[in-house]
């Protein structure tokens, strides 16, 4: 990857990075390698390691190849990874290291062989939310020596294997770690866990409003000041770690199982209470919701006051959360829903019961073929304007659902196997459903699941200008999130304005951030920002801004030579950035062809590539047969103040200035002999 690049596929089912021979050690390097880059986005495709299944993958002899990173981030900033999936791969899904800051990871699904997300001395400002990750060998998330990590609205679960943890802290300073509003489902060993083998942890954070469902509870992290509030444990899971139920048994021996059922009682989601609807082909679709139940009962009465067997017109026990009830008569009806509370092994019922009135009928003419209703899987309400496709090897037919979610295809009494699919805006595409046509009408009712409602990162362009509307380049902008630890001086996000006075950030709507703007002469201005627009202007006084300094006052280069003997010399080039805002420093030795074109010589130096230069950096090249020649060192770097910086520095090695070291010493020796001989002769003459 390079800075400013968006790598966007056509969707998880449409664009795939796939390995057709995983046993050949294909991924000895990272699949998507990002180092020292900024302002990148990776989204909307599938990474498939090619192992076909977890069981095949973990039966392989090389199953612990951790180096197969899906997305590898090192020294990066302003990164968004979303709507991505990785499956059947040995390594980690997303790996952050070495000062990688301001990373947003959301709407991803992962079934890896190792870890879903690693932050290893990554820096700070990482948000991980609205993801679904399964742990097989290790952990879904690992955090080591990384600050201000936000983990929320995720689902963690164990997939076949035992796994280790949903969130694992690996030591170091993890100040600002906030884990909230997640679901930890059926994890075997740990939910939130510290691995003491990797060193002690320090810092502070929160663990709040999480649901530990059929999983061990959270019992604290050694060395961390963690505030734990509002967490809910449902059902009991005997665990090999600690006491019999590992946190679910109180001191007096009773079970400590607070309720979490989404609602205290089952609730009818459609029809709405006291609403008036029409029957469609003599049926009314009824749906309901309740968490932690595996079985339900629905009873419908044709009375608003008497709920006995004489008024019962429909009864069903089901594991589903919806039913099509045959109702053709106008009148008022009552719905009574029972749900089995799996936590407490008891039945609960909606109270009061829900009512609706039928007034009118709708008929849908159905011909020979296939027909049915498309409804929302959660609410049971019709999904209109969806595209339904019926296809086989010879033809494709499409229909658009009407206001009642009805679709119908005429197949002219043909028999055979067809495929039925559905797609709608705001919903996940339905899986391909085989339909066996028998020459008669076939009713198939479909359900669709809505895509997650997430807080999408918001690309915000901040412009710094004076009150006279003059842009201010080179300004440092520091952004602090509301949950930033007051004792932590580091901002969540930081960038410098370009020549247009602009800097780009990934922020969240409806969140109020603290903004600190620092001009080149050190003046600080503090403001707040709620980034609900794509562009915002930060205004500072005209008299307190300094013009951007000339480049050479911030970035300086130099080139010298040092003789080795009469045929060889060192060419030494140096680079210095007094603002300490450079990255990706590269030295290349060459010559200038006809004084215009730079021609690399292909001679390596001792320090050709430096990711994050600090202080004066010098690169040395050894050249031979150099007497009288002119060399050029091309120096390139990425400056946060100026962008890409390129400098060419020349040095000439004069023929007379490269002495022969051996000849010099011999000359000195000969002169010394002559002086000694002269003194001896002088004393001899005086003696005579």
Q: At the fourth CATH level, what is the homologous superfamily of the largest domain?
A: Single-stranded right-handed beta-helix, Pectin lyase-like
Number of domains: 5
Contiguous low-pLDDT stretches (5 residues minimum) are 236-263, 453-457, 544-553, 656-667, 683-688
Oligomer: single chain
| Helix percentage | under 10%
Q: Total number of β-strand segments?
A: 57
The main β sheet shows up as: 16 strands, parallel
Share of residues in strands: over 45%
CATH topology of the largest domain: Pectate Lyase C-like
Q: So, CATH architecture of the largest domain?
A: 3 Solenoid
Terminal-residue CA separation: 90 Å
For this structure, what is the CATH class of the largest domain?
Mainly Beta
Anisotropy-based shape = elongated
> What is the residue-averaged pLDDT?
76
Structural class by SSE content: mainly beta
Question: For the CA atoms, what is the radius of gyration?
Answer: 35 Å
Query: How many helices?
Result: 3
Organism: Methanosarcina acetivorans (strain ATCC 35395 / DSM 2834 / JCM 12185 / C2A)
Keywords: Membrane, Transmembrane, Transmembrane helix
Pfam families: CarboxypepD_reg
Protein name: Right handed beta helix domain-containing protein
Structural account:
The chain has 688 residues and is mostly beta strands. It has 5 domains: 6-234, Single-stranded right-handed beta-helix, Pectin lyase-like (Pectate Lyase C-like), CATH 2.160.20; 268-362, Immunoglobulin-like, CATH 2.60.40; 369-448, Carboxypeptidase-like, regulatory domain (Immunoglobulin-like, Sandwich), CATH 2.60.40; 459-540, Sandwich (Immunoglobulin-like); 555-653, Immunoglobulins (Immunoglobulin-like, Sandwich). Helix content is 5%, strand content 47%. It contains 3 helices and 57 strands. The chain has a 16-stranded parallel sheet that branches. A 7-stranded parallel sheet has the order 3-5-7-10-13-16-20, with no helix packed on it. Strands 27, 29, 30, 32, 33 and 34 form a 6-stranded mixed sheet that branches. Strand 52 and strand 53 form a beta hairpin. The radius of gyration is 35 Å and the shape is elongated.
